Amino acid sequence: MAQTAKKVGIIGGGQLAWMMATEAKNLGLGLIVQTPHQSDPAVAMADHVVLGAVADANATALLSTQCDVISFENEFIDLPALQRLADKGTPFYPQLRCLAPLLDKYDQRLYCQRLGLPSPQFATLNSAADKPNLEACVASVGLPLALKTRRHGYDGQGTFILNDLDAIRTTWATLGHQPILLEAFVPFERELAIMVARSQTGKIALYPVTESQQIDQVCRRVIAPATVSQKVQQQVADIATTLMTQLDVVGIFGIELFLTADDQVLINEIAPRTHNSGHYTLDACFTSQFEQQLRAVTGLPLGSTAMNCPQAVMVNLLGFETSTSDYGQQRSALSAIPNAHLYWYGKGDARPGRKLGHVTLTCNTIHPQEELNQLIQQIEALWYPPGPNESD
To answer: What is the distance between the alpha carbons of residues 226 and 60, in angstroms, rounded to a whole number?
Structure first.
């Protein structure tokens, strides 16, 4: 029987926890965050704050005394230390045993392989002692390939698309010969994503399949729903359902995928939490991904994942300079676009590539691709200064 919690602890206090805070209030839930800085976005919105690094298990122990259940904004955690808290009765959702095969990208690939879920060819190198195995590993994967750090990579950090052995050798050395994952480069037609939730009673709720557009391995735009065949939608649904069922997990996951020219779907990466590709749900779905996470982890019934409009596009507002500006003029112009919903995360410092906010445009009709591109360009022209971004 599902248990209903009233106070939720969130490890992490960035924009994901910030967006969750409003949904918590709407559900009558208390939200307590563990985050390292008083200036982090969620601090102003949370009911209480425990200051401490994400991987600080002592801070999490304090957090556990102030809430009924603990969930996550990111996965940069100290899993063994949290397990000691779980052994003493602290409830975590997603369950720590479900996070264990996913936090390391190589473990994640092995787990998907065991489940028969489609993924690119892959290999791993663990340390400088594996340098003699480099050529054989590259040969098993093929060129070009994606080199990824196995832990703590996000927003393109720790991911490198490389074309030759010398570049792989040099990049790995620059990374200090830390554990890396080598993946076959997928010549994809498009990148897709899906948010999927599973409740304490085992109910699964699938959001629409979306198209995500990346620049320099950072998500720039999300289009919902993706214009893909029923066959592709079914492949994605099967992958998401199999993963959540086999894990027997409680929570919400974001799954990023590659779509090939022959309509085959391969898993790119799995995020065991709310995800950038699901931000559109705040305005375009009856239940946002943030409300859904709270519903799942507190034992409430899952909400409807249906869209409340025919189409939506989310555009990330990425930093393009080093600045402390609040970009008031750009934000005002973006807010004035009809059916535009602006979210500004309140981060004090901008730097190139940093996610500062996003805009979701809810559409009253499904636009052809050319019209959709024009809408996206209208948003981006108001945010990015003239220059190199014009060609993106």
So the answer is: 39
Q: Per residue in 365-383, is it b (16+ CB within 10 Å) or e — as a string?
A: eebeeeebeebbeebbebb
Q: Strand 122-125 to strand 265-271: parallel, antiparallel, or no bridges (unpaired)?
A: unpaired
Mean pLDDT of 232-244: 98
Residue with tokens 């100290």: 78
Q: What is the mean pLDDT of residues 265-272?
A: 97
Top pLDDT among 215 and 155 is at 215
Q: Does the structure show a pLDDT above 60 at 392?
A: no
pLDDT at 5: 83
pLDDT above 50 (res 1): no
Model pLDDT, residue 389: 47
Structure token digits, residue 37:
């800085």
- Among residues 205, 295, 189, 194, the alpha carbon closest in space to that of 236 is found at 194
Average pLDDT over residues 20-31: 97
CA dihedral over 64, 153, 146, 373, signed as positive or negative:
positive
Residues 6+ apart with CB under 8 A from 70: 8, 9, 10, 11, 60, 63, 64, 90, 91, 92, 93
**Minimal CA–CA distance to 196: which of 275, 89, 121?**
275
Question: What's the rounded mean pLDDT across residues 337-363?
Answer: 96
Indicate left, alpha or beta for 74 from its phi (over 0: left) and psi (-120 to 50: alpha).
beta
Listed residue (137, 144, 179) closest to 160, CA to CA: 144
Smallest CA-to-CA distance from 376 within 360, 364, 388, 365 is with 360
C-alpha to C-alpha distance for 79 and 104, rounded to whole angstroms: 11
Rounded Cα distance, 10 and 31, in Å:
7
Residue 7 DSSP one-character state: E
CA dihedral (90, 94, 98, 103) positive or negative: negative
Give helix 289-298 / helix 15-26 axis angle, nearest 10°. 70
At 173-199, the pLDDT tens digits run: 999 999 999 999 999 999 999 999 999
Q: What is the largest CA-CA distance in the chain?
A: 59
In three-state secondary structure terms, 121 is: coil
The answer, as to whether pTM is greater than 0.70, is yes
